[in-house]
């Protein structure tokens, strides 16, 4: 009976094994972003070019999978969220440079690697949500002010060791150094209204509930909450502030793409990369996901347009990536996730 | 027994002691080596951290992580024992209204993924949720500062949620043990003057101890490897630390070191427990178990019994399922999607296959250990079971590297020898996912079957051998029918767990391949569970049917029905 079982396994496994990955009209994508978010873009690509896109989505460990697969990896492109994933894969030397005129034209120089190792696709701003009822316009204009004692017991944030907060802290370290960053984080911790919990949307929900007055969160959640019947009231209770860091501008993070070192379908992959920065795809990013397109010539969605333009922090993304480990250490040392001291 | 064995082999070799490779021991070695590969890979990675993280962690968060983890484990262990053993006892030894329904209904929470339960309760019990809103309406409170309400996102909340989803392990295994206990033992205790309660405490309970321990060990390992639920409840455990070191500090070796520390916890616990009961036997010597006479519960005790059984089902299953159903109805159009049926099919096929393979391997190992009575084999088998305690994402990495190495080695060989490239053979196929499920859930199979086989008196094996049956025949013709219930229990537990498995599936799967769990996760990870409620309900539904099947089969396989003489 055991043999019959083994034979059954072999039969089932056989068609799905021995994939060399290279195929006439296919491109293989490893994505850190949920498939539901990237599907509209990939389907549009397939419609335009007839090239089929195969996807695996996983949030943790994709780079390890690439490493283990080595030269026979079927992946052509990796779509990432957060500058951390890009630097992780570039540092692991699993990418190859790609340079085409279309890519270089669409993506501004500070959002791509000078050697063509990675390209940004969209931008997301980490902003401050403020209560419409309890916080006036102009009461808070910078990230530094989050540590101001006047906000004691009024700040909500997700956990300090989440990628988005780590990136913000890493940028802070980049501007001010570790000592000042530690001081700042201690100030923010003292201002917390409750122990960090939930995701960005949950912080806005807390504003609506009156638990806190200001919260840190990514910009696109405002748009997504407004579209969701259940969450609309949360979004409508808050205003958006585009704070500045070190007087420069709002902290931005990127989602991006790289081409893997051993991509079997290189030509198709280049086509996909060019498609993702094309006006059409950038428009989908803007309207469906409410993100900021990387191509400055593409209009954002009407809602985002209504928020107006804002200065962006121009710190090199490399610097942010390099400071992440130090940022986590500071989060641990300060004990940010323990919440405010009991009073 | 060993004496019998030796004489049997001697008789066959007619005095010349030839060296005969023992198929059972050899097979067990090979199997445990393969299954233990991922855990060994993690161990190996622990030797190569990019930086020594321990000083920093010790100074900052590690003590708190360890303390939370221990608190969580202790809380969950104690609660699941309390609920699982009480419910198992009530349902097997007593009679009260609704007993027949409770018997199978108590297993239902097993079908509910823990993150769904977590989401549902934070939704209901948090400030903006219906419960607190109702309280505020009734008492006229206004803001959070006016009244005290237990904080749901806390260690306590995590313990309650995890208990409610995990107690079925203890319940099922303890119930098996109680059912297979001969009433003769209980009645003998009572003729010696024990009250029913004392008979339970001094005879039935100790005899069921191996099963209870297996159940609790499974519960603890599930608690350790969980990341989603504790993350949701803002509880920081060692698993949190592990993922931070791995992903934020980009220090895989450091993360592996923390994983190893967690494994050491588990090993220590199991060793301590084994040491405490080393020389005792737990098998029943009578060969004709009889139907136990049930205690009729009256008055207050009746209601208490109903309460003890009903509350876990309510909290662990009815409320979450009810809420999911209401979401599914509300968001029906968004939920239904063309990828959904394929994901469901993938889930069910994979889970069924993994369950079958894992039970086969678990049976082989458990029997080999029983046959050879070798502590080495037993410890190897238990080491192979440790995959259960390792978080899914880490286990997946432990599989990625050996598979990748194997594939690339074969490919390299083929390239140099024949000039053709075989590409990836195992990596990125469903074989990898299947292997992950088997490695992970072998603990369920081995533990259940070890306990089940332990309840079969060795006299059975001896009798079979005197009738000239070889070990394999003894297994198939004698042991197998007796432990059929345990095999089915193991198979169904594994099936249900495979349906819910997430992190390893996410990372190891082939292109364009979704299971129900990965499909649901895309939405749940963005707190959009409402929009995939239908998918979550399907996971639950696919789990309920085997679960109900299981308890019905277990009921039918009661020893008294197999051995009835009229």
Structure summarized in a few sentences:
The complex is a heterodimer of chains A (343) and B (566). Chain A has 343 residues and is α/β, with parallel strands linked by helices. Chain A has helices at 2-16, 35-49, 62-69, 83-91, 101-106, 163-176, 178-190, 200-209, 220-227, 232-236, 266-276, 279-288, 302-307, 317-322, 324-334, and strands at 26-31, 52-57, 77-81, 95-96, 119-131, 155-156, 214-218, 238-241, 252-260, 292-293.
Task: Spell out the blueprint of helices and strands.
The complex is a heterodimer of chains A (343) and B (566).
Chain A: H1 2-16, E1 26-31, H2 35-49, E2 52-57, H3 62-69, E3 77-81, H4 83-91, E4 95-96, H5 101-106, E5 119-131, E6 155-156, H6 163-176, H7 178-190, H8 200-209, E7 214-218, H9 220-227, H10 232-236, E8 238-241, E9 252-260, H11 266-276, H12 279-288, E10 292-293, H13 302-307, H14 317-322, H15 324-334
Parallel strand pairs in A: 1-2, 1-3, 6-7
Antiparallel strand pairs in A: 3-9, 4-9, 5-7, 5-8, 5-9, 5-10
Chain B: H1 2-13, H2 23-45, H3 54-59, H4 62-93, E1 94-95, H5 99-105, H6 114-125, H7 130-139, H8 155-180, H9 183-191, H10 196-207, H11 209-225, H12 228-232, H13 238-248, H14 252-276, E2 295-296, H15 299-330, H16 332-335, H17 340-372, H18 375-384, H19 392-418, H20 430-454, H21 458-466, H22 471-482, H23 484-500, H24 503-508, H25 516-524, H26 533-556, H27 559-562
Parallel strand pairs in B: 1-2
Helix pairs in contact in B: 2-14, 2-17, 2-18, 2-19, 4-5, 4-8, 4-11, 4-13, 4-15, 6-8, 6-15, 8-11, 8-23, 9-10, 11-14, 11-20, 13-14, 15-26, 17-18, 17-20, 17-23, 19-20, 20-23, 21-22, 23-26, 25-26
Fourth-level CATH superfamily of the largest domain in chain A:
Periplasmic binding protein-like II
Report the top-level CATH class of the largest domain in chain A: Alpha Beta
- Termini separation of chain A: 67 Å
Structural class by secondary-structure content of chain B = mainly alpha
Please give the largest β-sheet of chain B.
Answer: 2 strands, parallel
CATH topology description of the largest domain in chain A:
D-Maltodextrin-Binding Protein, domain 2
Number of domains of chain B: 1
Tell me, rounded to a whole number, the average pLDDT of chain B. Answer: 82
C-alpha termini separation of chain B:
34 Å
Domain module count of chain A: 2
Q: Can you list the strand order of the major beta sheet of chain B?
A: 1-2
Shape descriptor of chain B reads: globular
Structural class by helix and strand composition of chain A: alpha/beta
Spell out the helices and strands of chain A N to C. Answer: HEHEHEHEHEEHHHEHHEEHHEHHH
Rg of chain B computed from alpha carbons, rounded to a whole number of angstroms: 25 Å
Main pleated-sheet profile of chain A: 10 strands, mixed
How many strands appear in the DSSP assignment of chain B? 2
